[in-house]
Design goal:
The protein is of the alpha/beta class. It contains 18 helices and 22 strands. The strands form 5 sheets. It has an 8-stranded parallel β-barrel with strand order 1-2-3-7-8-9-10-14, surrounded by 4 helices. The longest helix is centred in the first third of the chain and has 17 residues. Bound molecules: beta-D-glucopyranose. Beta-D-glucopyranose binds next to loops.
């Protein structure tokens, strides 16, 4: 693979930012965020360095699962604005070189969807087999439900025909029947529609359930959907034909074995990106233990993937902090460290908390966490408000705790809306993480803020191609609290070192005799360092300290990195995105 592919494989060096339109910015003060409000905030995203906006579901919906229960795949929830308002957001983003992906939620519909209304009406309705029905009473499936505090079976009895329908999520979200070729065609049509409108791809909701991969065996056998990978491959090919650069980013909360299958194995050709749930969960265990071991262990097991695909790295998303891939004992350690009170724990597998309060707002630990996020190999993804260290409202039900209004300013509503707090789509956070103390306006003015720190990380991540494109290697060294890794690309390497502990650490990295006498440059502003005898680099890290060091062979051993242009006009940015030269700047 050549760097000239970088313009096509834009997702490999993207910075993803997830927004719930409903809680981001309310332009007409009706209490609900909207597309017009989001359009006003695209400059904010561009300034932060975001290159890919992920929109959570914005379709018409009874809103019983925050929009993940859809009644029309081709429309826009009128509370959020019109299709025209959405297109304005697409245009504003594209103008600034930001791609936009939509949440593709096609594992299920709402029970209010016209297809389901037809399907349930009689056993011989033409939409009957758009869903999965059974006539005989189902066995106990309580261990297969996803929201197991709220549901106890994945089958729901429907009085109209006396049969049961399948729903892996809520009972009001009947699963579509993927074994039915008509349903698969409908999905392609939905994808085609949004691509035609200008979307650059999709975040695919609930991939294991959608494709019945890696979940409950008995259901897999029952469904008769025999070639999920063939279908995914077909979809990918279809998208390539319709819009060559479009991307499929999968939500796959499974171990690497299954993730690899969903990339399409060593040939690729299925999902282009997958959220790295195993790595995310290991980061929390490592932070809880103040020991780098869990992260190193997971990275050692992360499989090689085809060059065109990429992991999406993240610390938080819009759901509960899922810790289901950890052992029970490990999960208990993370619960004890970051959410010991029952009110924070949910579904026996996760925490309904945001990162900043989990770390008690400690700037040193927060910086460590985000330094890690942006330096681990993969495409970093942020959930709105992370960049300012927003908190949660644990009194809100389940996953709503972390879906509170964006905090733009210090007013009680955080500048999200002028509507009284009691009339907002969701109440603003109260207390020390509320808008008075945590908001964009103050963060932008404070040079030492988390916002400005993350902005700088993004700038460096985008400026140097090694982290996004490079080959990855763990650097062995004896201090257990420290993670040292190197990403190398095109004659340069980025060395990142992270100390997970409150105590300082000194490490010696063996970089290879060929580097003896060379200088590494500290990209986060510290002094450069000379590499000593035999290629040894000795570093001292403060409590929760970290370093990003760059070693470039092009400086004649002097570590001189040619200066690069780092800010572009929107026009230039777009031109660079299509010229094939974007990332090759050194
Ligand atoms: C989403 C959830 C949603 C569920 C059902 C997911 O995994 O991330 O927010 O409730 O799918 O659509």
């Amino acid at each position: 693979m050549r760097i000239s592919d970088s313009a096509d494989l834009w997702w490999k060096s993207a910075v993803i930012y997830c927004v719930d339109v409903e809680t981001f910015m309310d332009s007409d003060d009706d209490g609900v965020g909207d597309f017009a409000g989001l359009a006003q905030r695209i400059d904010y995203l561009a300034d932060l360095g975001v290159t890919c906006l992920w929109l959570m579901p914005f379709y018409p919906s009874p809103n019983r699962d925050d929009g993940y229960d859809i009644t029309d795949f081709y429309g826009v929830d009128p509370r959020l604005g019109s299709l025209g308002d959405l297109v304005e957001v697409l245009r504003a983003c594209h103008h600034r070189g930001i791609r936009v992906i939509a949440d593709l939620v096609v594992n299920h519909t709402s029970t209010e969807h016209p297809w389901f209304k037809e399907s349930r009406s009689s056993v011989d309705n033409r939409f009957r087999d758009y869903y999965v029905w059974r006539a005989d009473p189902p066995p106990d499936t309580s261990d297969a439900v996803v929201f197991h505090e709220e549901e106890d079976s994945i089958w729901n009895h429907d009085p109209i025909t006396g049969h049961w329908y399948l729903h892996r999520f809520y009972a009001h979200q009947p699963d579509l029947n993927m074994a039915n070729p008509k349903v698969r065609d409908e999905i392609a049509k939905i994808i085609g529609f949004w691509l035609e409108l200008g979307f650059d791809g999709f975040r695919v909701d609930a991939v294991p359930q959608l494709l019945t991969v890696g979940i409950h065996d008995t259901i897999e056998n029952e469904l008769g959907f025999t070639d999920p990978h063939g279908f995914l491959r077909e979809l990918r090919t279809f998208m390539g034909r319709r819009r060559g650069h479009s991307v499929l980013l999968g939500e796959v909360d499974l171990m690497y074995r299954h993730q690899l299958e969903l990339f399409g194995g060593s040939d690729g050709g299925e999902l282009d990106m997958i959220f790295d749930f195993p790595l995310m969960q290991s980061c929390y265990l490592a932070m809880a233990r103040e020991d780098a071991g869990p992260v190193a262990g997971v990275l050692k097991n992360r499989p090689e993937v085809p060059a065109a695909v990429q992991w999406a790295t993240f610390l938080r998303n819009h759901d509960e902090l899922a810790l289901d891939l950890l052992t029970e004992a490990e999960r208990a350690e993370v619960f004890a460290a970051f959410g010991p009170q029952k009110k924070f724990q949910v579904y026996n597998r996760g925490l309904k908390r945001r990162l900043a309060p989990m770390l008690d707002g400690d700037p040193a630990r927060l910086r460590l966490a985000y330094s890690l996020l942006f330096s681990l190999p993969g495409t970093p993804s942020l959930y709105y408000g992370e960049e300012i260290g927003m908190g949660e409202d644990a009194s809100l039900g389940y996953r709503m705790a972390v879906r509170t209004p964006m905090q733009w300013g210090s007013a009680p509503n955080g500048g999200f809306s002028a509507r009284p707090a009691s009339e907002l789509a969701r109440p603003p956070v109260k207390g020390s993480f509320g808008p008075r103390h945590v908001n964009v306006s103050a963060a932008k003015r404070d040079p030492a803020s988390l916002f400005n720190f993350i902005r700088e990380l993004i700038r460096i991540y985008r400026e140097y191609p090694e982290m996004a494109w490079g080959s990855f290697e763990l650097l062995e060294q004896p201090v257990p609290n420290v993670l040292a890794h190197r990403c190398s690309w095109d004659g340069a390497s980025m060395i990142a070192v992270h100390n997970f502990a409150a105590k300082p650490a000194t490490v010696t990295l063996k970089l290879g005799a060929e580097h003896e006498g060379a200088t590494v440059r500290d990209l986060l502003g510290g002094p450069g360092r000379d590499i000593g005898d035999g290629g040894a680099l000795r570093l001292r890290l403060g409590p929760y300290g970290f370093r990003w060091l760059r070693l470039a062979s092009d400086g004649g051993g002097q570590g001189v990195v040619p200066e690069v242009q780092t800010t572009y006009s929107a026009k230039e940015a777009e031109a660079r995105n299509t010229s094939g030269k974007k990332d090759k700047q050194t």
